[in-house]
Amino acid sequence: MSILIPVAIILFLVYLLSFYDNIRLMRKFWIYGGKMPGPPAHPIFGNASLFKNKTTEDFVEIFVNLANEARAKGANLMRTQVMNRIYVWPLNGKTAATILESSTEVNKGDDYSFLVPWLGGGLLMEQGEKWKNHRKMLTPAFHFAKLEGYLDVFNSESKILIDCIEKAMETQDTIDLFPFFKRCTLDIICGTAMGIKFNAQIEHHHEYVKAVEGFNKLTVEYSLNPFLWNKFVYWALGYQKMHDDFLLVLKKFTNDAIVERRAALASGAVEKETSKRKMNFLDILLSSEESMELTSEDIRKEVDTFLFAGHDTTSTSLSWLCWNLAHNADVQENVYREILEVFGEDPNEDVTSEKINRLEYTERVLKESKRMFAPVPGVQRKLTKDIVIDGITIPSEGNITISPTVLHCNPQVYQNPEKFDPDRFLPEECLKRHSYDYIPFSAGLRNCIGQKFSVLNEKVMLVHILRNFRLVPKIGFYETKPLFEVVAKPSHGIPMKLIRRY
Question: Which InterPro entries did the record assign (predicted)?
């Protein structure tokens, strides 16, 4: 009993301090937020009422409408608030540049906190000197020569994808391509990042796949429910146990792969530095283990970051690309004709970097698809000090939300933003707008290190798909919507009728 009393006192004091800090932040953000453009906010709940009875399927429309209302009033930024958090949204590339080009305001925002137990310490979450050193170390993994070395995996897994789709077509008239793309990109990431054959396309029910899905769902639920931000509530409702169970599976999978690859390198079973081009992402980390003083946990976090950021974003981007092509038959036909002109009529020919770089029209189509459906709808920075943007003071501890979704739907930059028009990315058109008005992979110091990898992966898969199938939509364009989550997945998939070309 004598021990329990001081423990109870300490817990109570921690609760009081937490309660005080929440009140302090609410008061601070209420004062500053009242001077910013944005929807009326409640002193305690902020703008939570905007999201009542809504899902992340509705959020894109909510945020885009709020942004356009603010722009119509001449604002270059807007703010939203929920409980003890404030979010300030730049509404055009020029305003976003203040944060994107900052060398000091690079810390991730509050909404990333949920990912810390899994990815904290990896390139996505890290900050300061450690982030700079790891970024420098990992950059060679995405050089052009290295990407060429990944083409074998891109091609082989894309061919398996075609086989899997054709098998499904034997019994199904309607095919949702999204889960097929997710499994394919996961196999590609595992092959290129860790040099392992994962076989997600064949073994659909792997526990790692289930754990990724489960953890992603928890992430969304946590971000949408402020009551879950309280650790006791999170634990009492059983979320902490689910969280820990998923993490156990995720970490074990990666740690086992690291142990296996380290042993293979040590035994000479795989090539080491003799072929730099053949070294995968994990090999680079293992070869830098001593010089960079990397721990096994450091390596695990970087590999997990690449797995997490790589397969979900690419599969989502490719899904929206195919959705746009299915609903714009003329554009799809133009892309197909360009593919035939460059690659010829053999649907089994491997895609090469030399030929894929000649797909100029297809490149514009990819960019326009990412404008309409940015794979990552928003990134955040948490301010370390007060800053002034467009004459408005944004307080320290506040979040800046850089949203490609909001920036890409700006009617002041993109006329008729809901229209699919690849010619927006003709060279002369690009020169008319600020470079940060189009940022599907973010921009500045913390831009996506793997963007060239992702685009090349997407192009290779697209070439294989369109050489084999014509895409016909089974539902209306707006019957599936981008979810405003970590990744903008299609809410109802992308159901298609696929017509064989051969």
Answer: Cyt_P450 (IPR001128), Cyt_P450_CS (IPR017972), Cyt_P450_E_grp-I (IPR002401), Cyt_P450_sf (IPR036396), Cytochrome_P450_Monoox (IPR050196)
